[in-house]
Amino acid sequence: MSPGPCYRRIAALAGLEVRRALWAEAIRSESPPETARNLDAAVRAAARREPAGLAAVLALLDLDDLSRRAGPGRLAQVLDAARRLDLDGAMFLLEFPGRPVRSGELGLPPDPAVEAHTLGLRKAAARGLRTPLLERLLTDPDPRVVRELLRNPRLREAEVVALASRRPARQAVFGHLARAEAWIVRPAVQRAVVRNPFAPPRLVRPLLLGQPRPLLEEVAQDKGLHPAVRDGALRILAWRREGDQA
What we know:
Elements: H1 3-11, H2 16-29, H3 32-47, H4 51-58, H5 63-70, H6 74-85, H7 88-94, H8 112-115, H9 119-127, H10 132-137, H11 143-150, H12 157-164, H13 171-179, H14 181-184, H15 187-194, H16 201-208, H17 213-221, H18 227-245
Helix pairs in contact: 1-3, 1-4, 2-5, 3-4, 3-6, 3-7, 6-7, 9-11, 11-13, 12-15, 15-16, 16-18, 17-18
């Protein structure tokens, strides 16, 4: 299967979960070099802001889940193949760029009015109707509560942007954001994650692919962000210049 049709076929499917499952199937069934070429094509297309490339790459945000589905060692084999073939796009996606520049494992200070409730009650309230408690839960540092909040259809975009902008923030919060299909596709949420120094670079770098040039230029100059994030923005800008000259 040629690289182009593979990521376009995946992008044509509805839903990030379905696309991720098809990526995992392809990784299991294809040779590592073939998968590396397919991933490289998707990343390069996303860097050009082609809709099919962006849709295919968004399904790859949760690499831990993808690795579990694809099988032990499969992604490592694909990365080895990408290095042998010098496929920058595939390496951009698969290489581990390091931990966030700032650590927020303790999360925000707890709200005493929220902490007075049990975890079970807070999770139930996070799934429920809009109440004063639900609104206070928007500052709850527990990732398990954040997961339930992100599943609540009553949540508003501005509130999710505030969640994505939290400083400090635990790594698990960003994992839940990456899996929140209704929200992670939204440009405002992506921008909030990209600009957050507590966000894991492995999540931020693929999100950079679809960002407009002015934001990439700002990220590249932002000394508060991880060096791998700044370098990622520069690489995407370079790929776009190459595309403009082609």
